[in-house]
C-alpha cells in the first residue's frame, strides 16, 4: 500500500503540498477577475443559498460561493474560458494520480465542484450526508488552495480519524441539515475532538473521505480572501448515490474532460432553457455525451 493511501485510510484525509502548477492557478484567477468578478449581470448557482442569482462582491472579493463551477459555461457561455481553466485544475494529472493511488482505480466521475473567494464559514459536517458512493465511503473530495491562506481568512479544517463514524439520525435530522449539523457539533464537543486547520499554501491540496468531518473556520478579518476550489470524485467502479442515508442512485448525464466523466447536475439541467446549450458546451471541449 502506498504512503498516500495508507495515510488517507488511517486519518480520513491527506495533505499533498505544492501539487498544482501555480501558473495554471494564476491563469484561472486572472480569468475569474476579468470575466466573472466584476460582471454583475451573471446569474450563477450560489452555494450558500442553493439558488441561482447574481453574485455580490465586497472589498474586491466575491461573497457568494459558486456551486457547480465546472459547469458555469452551460448557462453562461461567456465563461467558457474560465470554466475550461477550472477543469484544467481539478482534472489535472497530479490530482488524478493521487486519486488513482487512493482508490486503485483509473477512471473517475466528477460529481460536484465549488469555488470560494471570500470565506463565509462552513459548519462541521460529513459529505456523506449530502452525497456519497455505494459502497459508502468511496467518494473523495479535494480542497485546492489558490493562494496562501491567511489564518484571518478562516481556514479549512478536518477532524482526523472521523471517517468511519456513522451517525444514527432521526427523521428530522435526516431532513433538516441544521439539526444534523447540531448533532455533529455536539459529537465533537462531547468527544473532545481536535480540529486540524493546516496552514495551506498556493497549490496545496487536501484529499478527504466522504465520512471525514470537516468545515471552515469563520473569517476573522474580511480584508483577507480564501480563494479555493473544491471537487468531489467517485470511482467509476462505484455507484453515485443520494447520500449515506438514501441509496437512491443519481442518474445524471455529462461529458468527458481529460479522461474524467464530468456530471451535469440536475439543478443545472433544470435551469437550462433548452438542451442546445449543453450540446454546445460539451462540443466546445471536444467531448462526448455519456449516460450513467
Describe this structure in words.
- This protein has a single domain (3-134, 150-157, 170-290), classed as q2cbj1_9rhob like domain (Jelly Rolls, Sandwich), CATH 2.60.120.
- It is globular.
- Strands 1, 6, 7, 10, 12, 14, 17, 18 and 19 form a nine-stranded mixed β-sheet that branches. Strands 8-13-11 form a three-stranded antiparallel β-sheet. The chain has a three-stranded antiparallel β-sheet with strand order 9-15-16, with no helix packed on it.
- It is built from nine helices and 19 strands.
- 40% of the residues are buried.
- With 292 residues, the protein is α+β, with helices and mostly antiparallel strands.
The string of secondary-structure elements, in order, is: HEHEEEEEHHHEEEEEHHEEEEEEEHHE
**What radius of gyration results from the CA coordinates?**
18 Å
Major β-sheet profile: 9 strands, mixed
β-strand percent reads 25-35%
**Helix count?**
9
Please identify the top-level CATH class: Mainly Beta
Question: In total, how many domains does the architecture comprise?
Answer: 1
Question: How many DSSP E strands?
Answer: 19
CATH superfamily: q2cbj1_9rhob like domain
What is the share of helical residues? 25-40%
Amino- and carboxy-terminal Cα gap:
30 Å
Tell me the CATH architecture. Sandwich
Estimate the global geometry from the Cα principal axes. globular
The unreliable regions are 274-292
Q: Do you know the CATH topology?
A: Jelly Rolls
Q: What is the average per-residue confidence, as pLDDT, rounded to a whole number? A: 89
Category by helix and strand content: alpha+beta
Amino acid at each position: 500500500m502506498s504512503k498516500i493511501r495508507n495515510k488517507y485510510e488511517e486519518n480520513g484525509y491527506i495533505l499533498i503540498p505544492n501539487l498544482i502548477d501555480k501558473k495554471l492557478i494564476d491563469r484561472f484567477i486572472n480569468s475569474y477577475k476579468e470575466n466573472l468578478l466584476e460582471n454583475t449581470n451573471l446569474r450563477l448557482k450560489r452555494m450558500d443559498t442553493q439558488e441561482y442569482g447574481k453574485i455580490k462582491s465586497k472589498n474586491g472579493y466575491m461573497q457568494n460561493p459558486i456551486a457547480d463551477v465546472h459547469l458555469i459555461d452551460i448557462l453562461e457561455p461567456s465563461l467558457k474560458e474560465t470554466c475550461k481553466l477550472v477543469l484544467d485544475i481539478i482534472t489535472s494529472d497530479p490530482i488524478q494520480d493521487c486519486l488513482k493511488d487512493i482508490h486503485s482505480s483509473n477512471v473517475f466521475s466528477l460529481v460536484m465542484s465549488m469555488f470560494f473567494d471570500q470565506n463565509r464559514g462552513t459548519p462541521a459536517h460529513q459529505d456523506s450526508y449530502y452525497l456519497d458512493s455505494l459502497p459508502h465511503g468511496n467518494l473523495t473530495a479535494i480542497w485546492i488552495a489558490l493562494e496562501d491562506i491567511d489564518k484571518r481568512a478562516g481556514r479549512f479544517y478536518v477532524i482526523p480519524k472521523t471517517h468511519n463514524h456513522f451517525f444514527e439520525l432521526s427523521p428530522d435530522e435526516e431532513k433538516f441539515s441544521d439539526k444534523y449539523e447540531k448533532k455533529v457539533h455536539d459529537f465533537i464537543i462531547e468527544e473532545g475532538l481536535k480540529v486540524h486547520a493546516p496552514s495551506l499554501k498556493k497549490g496545496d491540496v487536501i484529499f478527504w473521505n466522504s465520512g471525514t468531518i470537516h468545515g471552515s473556520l469563520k473569517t476573522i478579518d474580511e480584508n483577507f480572501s480564501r480563494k479555493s476550489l473544491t471537487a468531489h470524485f467517485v470511482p467509476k467502479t462505484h455507484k453515485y448515490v443520494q447520500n449515506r442515508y438514501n441509496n437512491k442512485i443519481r442518474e445524471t448525464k455529462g461529458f468527458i474532460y481529460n479522461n474524467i466523466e464530468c456530471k451535469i447536475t440536475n439543478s443545472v439541467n433544470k435551469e437550462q432553457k433548452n438542451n442546445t446549450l449543453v450540446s454546445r458546451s460539451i462540443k466546445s471541449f471536444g467531448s462526448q455525451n455519456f449516460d450513467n
